[in-house]
Amino acid sequence: MDVHIGSVETQVTATDPKLLDDPRFIARIVRLVKEELARDDLEKGRRERDRSPTPPPGR
């Protein structure tokens, strides 16, 4: 079953609330999330290729 998520909401607790106002910090979080999503996509592709039938030799 494929699941498509259009948005994600979370509650963040920070030891330094000022960090949440720092654009560099937010950009870092966004970058890390994008990297993890890209890794997930790669893994999903690997799993799909593993499940697909292999063509006979010589094709």
Offer a few descriptive terms.
elongated; Transposase; 59 residues; mainly alpha; 1 helix
Can you offer a commentary on this structure?
This protein is mainly alpha-helical and 59 residues long. It has a domain of 32 residues. The protein has one helix and no strands. The mean pLDDT is 83.
Characterize the overall form: elongated
Q: In which range does the helix fraction lie?
A: 40-55%
CA-based gyration radius: 19 Å
Q: Determine the mean pLDDT.
A: 83
Spatial gap, N to C terminus: 31 Å
Approximately what portion of the residues adopt beta-strand conformation?
under 5%
Number of strands: 0
Give unreliable regions as ranges: none
Q: How would a textbook summarize the main sheet?
A: none
H/E element order: H
Please work out how many helical segments DSSP would assign: 1
Q: Classify the secondary structure makeup into a structural class.
A: mainly alpha
Protein name: Transposase
